[in-house]
From TrEMBL:
<protein>
    <submittedName>
        <fullName>PilZ domain-containing protein</fullName>
    </submittedName>
</protein>
<feature type="domain" description="PilZ">
    <location>
        <begin position="23"/>
        <end position="91"/>
    </location>
</feature>
<dbReference type="Pfam" id="PF07238">
    <property type="entry name" value="PilZ"/>
</dbReference>
<dbReference type="InterPro" id="IPR009875">
    <property type="entry name" value="PilZ_domain"/>
</dbReference>
<dbReference type="GO" id="GO:0035438">
    <property type="term" value="F:cyclic-di-GMP binding"/>
</dbReference>
Length: 120
C-alpha cells in the first residue's frame, strides 16, 4: 500500500529537463504534489538522487515567463522519472502555481512533446 504525505493532482504540462544548466530532454508532467512530481520522458541518463531542473510555462496565461524548479530523482521507470522537491531550494509560489494550474486544467498540453528516440 502506498502512503503519500501530500495529495497528487493528475495533469499534463510539457516541460524541458535541465542538467547542470543545460537542456537535456523534454518531458510531460503526469501528476504532481507539493512535495514532488512524475514526468513522462524517454530520458534515461539520470541517477537516483541526482538534481535536475525543470522549466515550464502555463500556456493559457498572459505572461510568457518560464518557471524553473529543482528536484532530485527518487524513482526511474520505463515511463519516466519520479522527482522530489524536498532538500532543494525552490520558489514555493512556483510550486503552488503549478498545483493550481494542474487542478484547473485536465487537458493535454504539450509544448515540449515527449518523443521516443529511434534506434538507427
Amino acid at each position: 500500500m502506498e502512503h503519500r504525505l501530500s495529495q497528487r493532482v493528475q495533469g499534463k504540462l510539457g516541460l524541458l529537463v535541465y542538467r547542470r544548466g543545460m537542456p537535456v530532454a523534454t518531458g510531460q508532467i503526469r501528476d504532481a504534489s507539493k512535495r514532488g512530481l512524475f514526468i513522462a520522458t524517454d530520458y534515461t541518463d539520470v541517477q537516483l538522487n541526482q538534481i535536475l531542473e525543470l522549466e515550464f510555462r502555463f500556456p493559457d496565461k498572459q505572461e510568457k515567463q518560464f518557471r524553473r524548479l529543482k528536484a532530485h530523482v527518487v524513482r526511474k521507470s520505463d515511463e519516466g522519472i519520479g522527482l522530489d522537491f524536498e532538500g532543494v531550494d525552490n520558489d514555493g509560489f512556483a510550486i503552488s502555481s503549478l498545483m493550481h494550474w494542474l487542478t484547473r486544467h485536465h487537458r493535454s498540453v504539450s509544448y515540449f512533446p515527449v518523443r521516443r528516440q529511434q534506434a538507427y
